[in-house]
Amino acid sequence: MGNVMKKKILIVCAFFIALCWAIFFISLKKNKIHLAIIPHFMIDTIKVDEFYSLIHDKRYSTKNPDAIVLISPNHFYWQNWNISTTCKDWEIRYLAEKVDSKMLKNLPCEKDVFKIVWENTVISEHGLGEHFRWINKYFSWVVVYPMVASPKAMEYTSKQIAEIQKLHWNILVIASVDFTHYLPEDITYEHDQHSIQVLTSMTWTTQDFYNLDVDCPSCLFIMNELWKISGQTGQFRYRDSSSTIAWEDLWEENTSRVFMYYE
User: Fold this and answer.
1) Burial of 221 (0-12, 13-18, 19+ CB in 10 A)
2) What pLDDT digit, counting tens, does each position of 9-24 carry?
3) Rounded to 5 degrees, what are φ and ψ at 69?
4) For the chain, N or C: smaller number of CB within 10 Å?
5) Same structural domain for residues 23 and 118?
6) CATH of the domain at 145
7) How many Å apart are CA 8 and CA 22, to the nearest integer?
């Protein structure tokens, strides 16, 4: 066999080995998506703190996530039917808290929510901002990709899910969702049990999500789609409400909360 042929064989072998190593390292860096449902109704902050601590200790005790995707209902501009993101990469503020944010590419930007005031980007959306305190406490210096969703915009979610999948290797996705509003505790509890059942079941339909008594069915729909992709199982942690915290039925002042994570 001539020297030229030997060199060709060596080059092909080296290329094949390099390709195998590249595939191996890409498989090691497989995109990891961790999911959590955490309310923005911050009554009894001890429960919120405990749950953030749980998520941190279970997943990120040695290394923070590369990014956090924070999905909130669009409380004040619900007529904006798209599921939107910030208009550019910048620091965003809510009251005394601030985080570094990045936009999700190829998604509509939300100029109504992310406003510039005296050269600062200030938001009024508490569904996002109420989490900044806890993100800064447990995941300091982690960039946040904010999203606001029209409550029942399930038909707009496929592009958002695809954009989340394109992000860094290790992502924490938080759905900032409050559950049943303004009903007596016995009915509230019933509605919440149904919502938990849908969120932990494999037999749900899109219509099931439209019927959930929560302030952002589309946020939970995105979580459920990501759950299917990641192959994780929803773990119900705990449920409470204004009434259970106050130890009396608050009727029309009642709002409930459900805390879940997926593994």
Assistant:
1) buried
2) 445 444 444 444 444 3
3) -100, 120
4) N
5) no
6) 3.40.830.10
7) 21
